[in-house]
Specification:
The complex is a heterodimer of chains A (376) and B (351).
Chain A (H helix, E strand, L loop, with lengths): L2 H16 L7 H15 L1 H9 L13 E2 L1 H5 L12 E4 L10 E4 L2 H16 L6 E8 L8 H13 L13 E4 L2 E2 L1 H14 L2 E7 H11 L11 E5 L11 H12 L6 E5 L8 E3 L6 H6 L5 E3 L4 E6 L12 E8 L8 E11 L2 E7 L12 H8 L7
Parallel strand pairs in A: 1-14, 4-5, 4-7, 7-8, 8-9
Antiparallel strand pairs in A: 2-3, 5-6, 9-10, 10-11, 11-15, 12-13, 13-14, 14-15
Helix pairs in contact in A: 1-2, 1-5, 2-3, 5-6, 8-9
Chain B lengths: L2 H22 L4 H14 L3 H11 L6 H10 L6 E4 L7 H12 L3 E4 L6 H9 L5 E2 L10 E5 L2 H10 L5 E5 L3 E6 L5 H16 L9 E6 L3 H21 L7 H17 L1 E5 L2 E7 L12 E5 L3 H5 L6 E7 L2 H10 L4 E3 L19
Parallel strand pairs in B: 1-2, 1-4, 2-3, 4-5, 6-7, 6-11, 7-10, 9-10, 11-12
Antiparallel strand pairs in B: 8-9
The chains are: A alpha/beta (376), B alpha/beta (351).
Amino acid sequence: MTRSARSDSLHAAVRRFAAGDRARSFAELALEIAEFQREFSAGFARLCAARRASLSNVGDIPGVPCDAFRLARVALHPEAEDRLRFSTSGTTSGARGTHAMRVTETYQELALNFGRAALLSNDRPHHVVALAPRLDDPPSSSLGHMMALFMADFERRAPLEVRTAERWLIDDRGVDLAGLERAAAHAQTRGETLLVLATSFALVGVLDALEGRTLPLPAGAVVMQTGGFKGKSRELEPAELRAQVARSFLISEPQIVSEYGMTELTSQLYEATVPGSALERERRGAPGVYAEPPWLRVVPVDPTTLEPVPSGEIGIARIIDLGNVDSAVAIQTQDRVRRVEGGIVLLGRAAGAPPRGCSLAIEEFMSHVGHQGGGR
Amino acid sequence: MSDFEFETRRARLEPLFESARSLADASTERGKLARERLAASSGLSAQGVDFALHRCLETAPDEREIAQLIRSTPSAQVAHVLLSANVFVAAHRAIAIALSASEQVRVRASRREPEMAELLLAGAPGSFQLVPELSPRSGDRLWAYGSDETMDEVAVALPAGVALHAHGSGFGVAVLDGSHSDSELSALLAALAEDIALFDQRGCLSPRVLLVNAAPAVADELARELAGQLETLEKLVPRGTLTVAELSEIAKFRDTAQFTGEVFEAGLGYVTRSNAGSWLLPPTGRNMHVLSCSDALATLLPYRPLLTSCAVAGAPAVRDAFRRALPGARVCGFGEMQRPPFDGPVDRRDT
């Protein structure tokens, strides 16, 4: 079978798995994808050889460090076959990492499948807006692309123009508070559920713009927050941000749900807190606990040996994402995590070796040349 | 500068030099004490401390270099010194510069590694003051060494009228140009391995990248040989203790390099390879990246503000070109990176 045919076959198998077909287990699929990648990615083959990875169990799949996406092409196929290219955040184009996809249907189905479970609290139509800059064309931000997917799918009105200014409530002047008020009024009038998709720094922007005032959202509204602050706003602890947003929008804290995703992944994790959502009914997660979709598994590993740590201990996250058929099925992040009942707790990015004396730290070097780790 | 002033300044330095000489001598009580205390605080192996004291502590500086140091140092009412950790021998040069500037010298040592300043003072009592905090006033000068973050904090907090000489973060590079016999190459790489191993590569002069003007296959061979040299040296001078954060950086670096190019085990460290293009700065702990490129100078120019030291093996004209293009860096030969001439600050990036 050719590379493309094997890729197509694996994508189809992953989509069937996501749809509930358990003819093949998570481990079987993960190992088959890893074997496929070892065959067609020289870099992954070298990594497997160096780690003496037999690929006989999921814990044995070496994670490709996120930095690799910034230094090399992490794709099994040639650029001519790219149908989407997502860039990591960065300050110079040359330093950005790219996650190239040759099959977009898998991304779409996986994102929608778990997004619906985590974010939709009822069967009514939704009105979806994003506290984010308007989506570029073709989309280079995986987050922006996902937000547009949610708009088109959750509103159940086709065809839907998702690139209008009414949908994207951040521009060069900052947060469009009036736009958010209009969206709230629109949802209220039509009896729709408002879903606000937002980055954390955009929410801080809203809080700052409101200057202590409130902007009531309709009952049942849901706010999805994601990402860090990246120096774009003042920083708030997650619990404090959630509390302040709830107070400002006059909604309950469980209606604010955090998402975890990154450009290097195809899939996302969510807190299982939105009242009435399928994920909340199934897992009843606490705030701060991120639930994995069935096709993704987080393996906390020791930061020095990269071996899995005992359950419940803190490690850095190796993420096995079956959606990454054509890139890297296992990604090694620097995010500190701990497995708990119902999912994983994020404990922040492992600090690089702090500057000791005058030797240049990697982070300083990356900053100088324009690399920005992670992000979307 | 008058002869009188010059001689006055020169006289202030002598007790410090004498103190350094007695520390470098492993047979003296002070030498033994220094090795004990520095090994405990620096994280280096005992052999690493001894290696650094022998190779890098200036015990008999050249008089012409001392003269240059004295003449190039501006005078100050009070000279303040903020020392960093890791490269303990740097305290000697830093204090010498301050003593050249003023008869009143106040030194704040690194809280993590205060030993070297204390040891130097014990051997030259009264020559300078060790203080828990610096409080410079208008008319004073402050020589500060450390991370860029520390330099920023110092600059913000400094009272008006205090001159700051900031020496922040940086790294060293080595450039191999021209043709060399096999034996010359072995000698060059052995010398470079020593530059890397000193202080377990935690200094701002420590080389982190070797640029090779050669075909990729040749660069691969050089990387392999450098790895071998590092492994051999490690048997004589074992790597010290690294923190979990440092070990984690190394694991990430190794796997990233494995994915993007070649990795050669070099004792406990790694030598990695790639051709021109994006590359990752190796973490400290005796790791090196070998980059093959056709124009090393052009490759380095974007990093000019960060470069403190550049060892060049090549024709004199090539070395001169690097000296002109990288005025902030010490341009030297392989094996000389960690012992720049005692003629002024450790690098030329004085701001």
